[in-house]
Amino acid sequence: MKMKPLQVPKRTIMTPGPVEVDPRVLQAMSTPILGQFDPCFTDIMNEVMEMLRELFQTKNHWAFPIDGSSRSGIEALLCSVIEPGDKVLIPIFGRFGHLLVEICERYGADVYTMECPWGEVFDQQKIIAKVKEVKPKIVAIVHGETSTGCMQPLNELGPACRELDVLLIVDVVASIGGANVMVDEWCLDGVIGGTQKCLSVPSGMAPITYNDRIEKIILSRKKVEAGIATAEDIALGNKKNRIHSNYFDLAMLQDYWSPRRLNHHTEATSMLYALREGLRLVLEEGLYERFGRHQYHEKALIAGLKAMGLEIFGDEHHKLPTVTCVKIPLGIDGDWVRQMMLEQFGVEIASSFGPLHGKIWRIGTMGYSCRKENILSVLSALEACLIRAGATIHRGEGLQAALDYYEAPIAAKENANV
Ligand SMILES: *Cc1c(COP(=O)(O)O)cnc(C)c1O
Description:
Layout: E1 12-13, H1 23-29, H2 39-56, E2 62-67, H3 70-81, E3 87-92, H4 95-106, E4 110-115, H5 124-134, E5 138-142, E6 144-145, E7 150-151, H6 157-163, E8 167-171, E9 190-192, E10 205-210, H7 212-226, H8 231-235, H9 250-257, H10 269-285, H11 287-307, E11 323-327, H12 334-345, E12 347-348, E13 360-364, H13 372-388, H14 397-407, H15 410-414
Helix pairs in contact: 1-10, 2-10, 10-11, 11-13, 11-14, 12-13, 13-14
The structure holds pyridoxal-5'-phosphate (PLP).
Keywords: Aminotransferase, Pyridoxal phosphate, Transferase
Binding site for substrate: 362
Organism: Ureibacillus thermophilus
């Protein structure tokens, strides 16, 4: 069979992932392969760990990627810590909360949930009260909920969990590298990031970090498995259960990422090159400069959408700066508009899930995709396609508002009431 050469159209990707990848990352991916125990390669592994600690703003020793999409990191952390029957409390404020529930249930956890309406976040004190009532071993929660565009504050929950001796495991897949995530300051015990969102690296790795509270559990489970557990290990709540996954066994994975380099899987060489370059780009830009850039373009987008006459979905005080949810005007077929934007303009935005499907669009402003030309492209494509779909909008005003914002002096932008 003769297949034509690989060819893909040029796209402007304004979804909540995967997003456009920086050309420097694409270039790094074409670097020749090294053996997985080649000192030149293990040096790269160490460099990635070092940069991940900076990204996560942590002094944790363990910070390395799991091979697989972001949920592989979620699964690795949860399955290494959860033993059947363990109580896990999961506050749900969107679709990815339900993913945490599903994964915890699969590993035999006794799952307790609390929910708030989609488009809102929890009052942290309410979660803390529930923690006191349920007395779970673990609280698992999403930071940036991609499905609703909301960001859950964690600065009170973390210290409270620490005081109550509860582990806090957080999914920061949609926020890491785009919004502030302070692992140590907020007392987060285990954290999972993603590559294909604000890091602008292809999907295929999930950077995680965890502290010694989690490591202690992992190591004690390993000792039980090896038959060398002490009374203290058993007292840690261990129910003599080995970690139920080989691929996601953090005890084995951390041995592989330690100087001992105990063989586990074959590291995804080209993806590690990509992650290294992606992290280098983040740190070169500066963490806080990068968060500032995400907010800067998010504000331009919101100014444009509002001037067009569209409404933003969700609690704007707890908005995730990397995802903007827009209400689809009544009577308009959201999928038809999205399809036309892609076909005519090569611009991609996202629909939503479950109760929000058909009600909102989600526009990502993540990583390399988060730049002025993309904001202007998405606004112009959306306006044109909405007019074609028969929507009543303020013609021409969206782009003008965004241009006004971009052309205004910096001080005015900081005070922009959008
Ligand atoms: C995208 C996303 C995930 C899942 O990522 P995959 O790479 O598709 O496994 C998990 N949590 C959040 C908050 C996300 O945005």
